[in-house]
Amino acid sequence: MKHDTQVEILEELLEQLEQGRNIDAGVQVRAPVDTYVCPEVAERERDELFRNHPQLIGLSGDLPETGSYMTIGDFGIPILATRDKDGHFHAFLNACRHRSVQVATDARGTKNVFTCPFHMWSYRNTGDLVNVPDEGDFGDVDRACNSLLELPAVERDGLLWIHPTANGDLDLDELLGKDLAGELASWALSDLRYTGEYVIEKRLNWKFANDTFGETYHFQKLHKNTLGQLYIGNNLHLREFGRHHRFVTANHAIRDLRETNQAEWLLSQNAFVLYYLFPNVQLLVAEDNATLVRIYPDADDPSRSTTKISFYFSEEAIALFSAAAADGAGIDDVYDRDAVENSFGLDGIMEVFYSTVELEDYEMGEMQQRAAESGIIDYVVFGRNEPALHHFHRSFRDALGLPPCEIVAVAAEETA
User: Fold this and answer.
1) Which of 16, 137, 155, 367 is the most exposed place for a label (fewest CB within 10 A)?
2) Which of these, 91, 94, 100, lies nearest to 57 by C-alpha position?
3) DSSP letters of 50-84?
4) pTM, rounded to two decimals
5) CATH classification of 3-53+178-415 is 3.30.1360.120, yes or no?
6) Which has more pLDDT, 156 or 332?
């Protein structure tokens, strides 16, 4: 990210703190709760937002070397992603062309050839069919026409994008736009190494899970003993990029920023930076690490969702973590305010997601789900200090052709 953009964001966050205010959307809105429980809406979401929409499936570090592969089945279509001997990224339907059995079942690994366990048809990681056992008995097979079914796939600036349908449109210039694409490119995500994953399966609709990442109003309430020890809360800078947005909130280190030269200001040392990528991705970025949060609806039950959280670090950061572990650094350092600008390693970040997202945020989400299913309440309210939630709900409702959320209150100065 350009330095002047970082300074602009930090200036706004500082002014909010100094003036005792937060970002102001100007209005409150009501979101009907039926979209969290309705089977018909859930089916449309699966078809239009997941099966027929580009999907970010990981970072380049998920396929770190030639022969690397990973499998994905989170949006109802079995996917095999590979890196061939020339370093090119591919995505295929993970299904043998003979009887449609998956040719790869492990979540990730290294292979140059994939063999179907049913009849042992084999495919290169370029998708080419290379072996049909007992072909003389089976009959001639046109290998050129029976490669793995390839899907649109693009690797750009450290991000792995696919489209789940063979004839799907995967135009990243159109999907992201110039400004957002430029910002994502500036974070050097291709230099990061995959270091692990944490999965949360809970009884809450995928949009309730996504709402968790849409405001900081709750930081000093729900998270006062966890994330609230690191971040100030009720403090936000937001920029929309079409249906995507950038979300930035300050940590406690920002309070000392006025004492330093602006030329030395770094956003990632004084705030966390999150990009929401429509429809279901939260990408948290810093100078030496990134966290990819992918939230998926359950295929059969609107009240359930799966959150997959993948962690990536630079080689330098991994070396520092190893040295710190050798010196006896422990998980207790995670919530040390004085160390907030320093990374605290994979174990620490996983602990944050467990203690805050799973045990606190998603517990609230499960309560929301039960209330929505009761049929007693009609809507939830998003406040003037929660514009990222306004944007998310406006975006997915627009994509599905649903009417916009109802405006229920306008800022006093607008009615004067």
Assistant:
1) 137
2) 91
3) IITS-EEEEEGGGS-STTEEEEE-TTSS-EEEEE-
4) 0.92
5) no
6) 156
